[in-house]
């Protein structure tokens, strides 16, 4: 009996050792995979950096040579122009002098002939008359050397040193970008991207976010600004997208190196407004609604109850019309036809003047007025299920409504559990345009 117990104990210990060995092997394999990923990141980024350096300096060399050649041609053209403009008056003067020399030689020959024939008074008279007409005392003025150009070139001897200094500091190798993406959160029809500085000494002035489909290679700008988060909208569900971000230092013109690319996707379909509401015109994606000039208008609801607890629902005002205290933006348990506002039972909302309504009652706390560019967010979470009077089941939601830099927090008590809510809006006057995501 003792031997059987000992054998069973040994068998148990052996199985535990095997299980521990499996776990240990799994942990080592995960760490080995992590090492391979790190090695691939180092090798891959090194290859990309070498290619970028060689391509950049090749293009830079070609550009510099082109600029130097263009400058040389321009200077040579300037020399040609000065030479041509300065030589022309000298050529004209030379022609005049040569003409005078020829005239004087001809007159000299005629004079010698007239003198040899001294008895011919007519010849002597004609010669003397011709000599007076030629004005032998009039000579063309020849400019002195100080009056004509003497071309030379002035070259800045410090230029080469300046270029050398700039080249010696041009380009830098960064082993870690100063900004990294820290979170990718799926949103309905989009992805919330958050990033943070990875270098405390780097003072960022603005950030630049790019994305592309993971199957593509061409990144495109999606946000440039001072914020450290952005919701990328209008993307396909269940499709991978790659994101990267960089920053521009304070007082700098160039951007920092790109962050390590991160890939994310969303499984949540985009929120949509319902079609057919007379007072609103919708965008092609049906996520943006414009209050038109229709005289009759009720509440515009969502197509389906797509807002669930734990998500963030955002209304962004792309344009604003005249405000009215009856305006409303919010969520409700179910649509109610015939209502002109969400300021009613089983709904929570905010008016364009910032007033907050819960089940039709105005709260004492108030948010900033809504205007063009304003964003109003709703966050909800289930607080508790419980029993109310008459044995009815109560359902409590913790609601946070944020607008501007302020928020209100309250508990919303419903008479029954609600897995998903409708969202809606109503505006008395035209001109309001609201995007939901």
Cα distance, first to last residue? 71 Å
Number of strands: 21
- Rounded to an integer in angstroms, the radius of gyration calculated over CA atoms is 44 Å
Mean pLDDT: 88
Instruction: Give unreliable regions as ranges.
Output: 388-392
Shape: elongated
Query: Could you give the order of the helices and strands?
Result: HHHEEEEEEEEEEEEEEEEEEEEE
Largest sheet, if any? Answer: 7 strands, antiparallel
Proportion of β residues? 25-35%
Structural class: alpha+beta
Helix share bin: 25-40%
As laid out across the biggest beta sheet, the strand order is 8-9-21-12-17-18-19
Q: Kindly report the oligomeric state of this protein.
A: single chain
What's the tally of helices? Answer: 3
Q: Keyphrases for this structure?
A:
single chain, 437 residues, alpha+beta, 7-stranded antiparallel beta sheet, 3 helices, elongated
Descriptive notes:
There is one protein chain. The protein is α+β, with helices and mostly antiparallel strands and 437 residues long. It has helices at residues 2-116, 121-134, 159-169, and strands at residues 179-187, 190-197, 204-213, 220-225, 229-233, 241-249, 262-264, 280-282, 288-291, 300-301, 307-308, 312-319, 328-332, 347-350, 355-358, 361-366, 375-387, 393-403, 406-414, 420-426, 433-436. Helix content is 32%, strand content 30%. A seven-stranded antiparallel β-sheet has the order 8-9-21-12-17-18-19, with no helix packed on it. Strands 10, 11, 13, 14, 15, 16 and 20 form a seven-stranded antiparallel β-sheet that branches. It has a four-stranded antiparallel β-sheet with strand order 4-3-6-7, with no helix packed on it. The protein is elongated and about 165 Å long. The two termini are 71 Å apart. The relative contact order is 0.08.
